[in-house]
């Protein structure tokens, strides 16, 4: 449980008592009156104060455009207990926000301050007022209008605030119950920090089923922008898992058509939290509405079409939700190993045999990895030792070993079993050092594509840095087995890959921007060189080459048939295959050297990045978009190249199969009929399946082909038995 989750848990419990915004029992609030006298209330009792911040009237102008961006703060005894949302460009803002406070001393006033929000600058003061409570009757709502003043200029008219204030008596039992709840949550938090792989912790890592969600559309969302529209996107949260949809600009009836899967860790289902937001560039996104879905009320193995109303009639979301009850991951000791049992192994092989290729297409296979031990790890503690533990990740599945304390050569001897939904997924093994008082320290990481695993082979992998580009100190010993159905794996190659939901947030990186630019530059130069070569044939720079090119052009054009297109690609794949079989490696070594030699001064870049973000935060989203666009363009070009370079033999063989089938189909069937069938399929797809999610099979295939930088990350490093001190220092930058 993180500190943020702890605070939210305390907030949740306190809300159960109808109170929040002061766990430490806020000192005194008095409601302002107009001088009237009321019977004095006991100042030492416990009260609940409900405040509705309604609106502001004729507030002060603080921006050049003749407006302000006001928000309100409540303070008691110098401590901030509430902050309202920001209303942009409005001198008569309407908040309609409710806050509930607990007070046990009515002598302290509530100090209310209004500010104008200025992005990247200090916020401007717009006025303040005090709220007193000694003349307020119990259990009676009072409309209060507070005139804002500036202590430096008391005669200046700064407008007013309108509030509704209600005071309720509270018993001392509520105070004790609140303290007991906070104390109980803290005890649970401490217990969870001390557990690593207990039975409870192990159970929390194993998911019991899959929630497949298709986000179809939104209806009648409320406008949040000045143009009367919104730029909506949706956030989903199920336990620790989160998913964020794409943003649909300028609409109140967005069409998302997105599909994703979440894991069920609770056998009863759990609560799916859904919130809708309006995207605002350069400022905080606006909250549109929210709703919840109780998954325990949905039947399994059935698709449910749901029309969920957002709270307070702020619109509707249309979803298709399917619950699948499956147990697909497990943790066991080395002595309990399914694949070591010949009978169990045969049952698993039979389950993924070719005869069952069209049963449950999402169940492609299974992978079992034995995390045995590590040697020569980096010392992360001041004692010269570490407390290492290991995390194995496959897409969104994440399992963790226990911690071995005070050693640089730990032995875990754990067996992890994962279900394979995509044979092109990458198994990531990360080693951390446990620190009880802070986040774990990174010790090393390896990334292993499932297609690169050789069954039952125990192998020592050299640990790499976080970027997987350079070695760090230590090796880890693993043994893995992958059993899969090739037909299912081939079919799954042409559907969108599973998105990873827990990823680090994208950040501005000068190093990454330069690296992506160089990758795009290499692809563009390749195209330019190819065009120059073809142009040289036209220019007759080499008469022999130009004559051959002319004859080939005449023969091909004269005898051209459409089947020659996949056939030529097939010949290119075959040519590269024979080059590879003859011992001529593809030009991967040069790619590795390019990335391995690209080093930068990270300390300077980090300091520059922080200064850049402080001054130019408004353009961060633009820079990240450009950075990611460069990465996408580079990946596309590299993946096309690597398809024909046999970087992944499985994909190259699959490409050969598809190209052979395509050439045969086009050869025997006239093109006009193929185009006709394709057009009919395209025009009728929407009628046959109104909720169909569009995809491009070619792009989905290319997404499985690793780019050059991924080839570097997945390349095995040779462990050196003896190294000089200078080499060790070079290989261990941390």
UniProtKB/TrEMBL annotation:
Gene3D superfamilies: C2 domain. InterPro entries: C2_dom, C2_domain_sf. The chain crosses the membrane at residues 316-339, 548-578, 650-678. One of its GO terms (biological process) is regulation of neurotransmitter secretion. The keyword Calcium applies. The keyword Mitochondrion does not apply. SUPFAM superfamilies: C2 domain (Calcium/lipid-binding domain, CaLB) (SSF49562). Belongs to the MCTP family. This is Multiple C2 domains, transmembrane 1b.
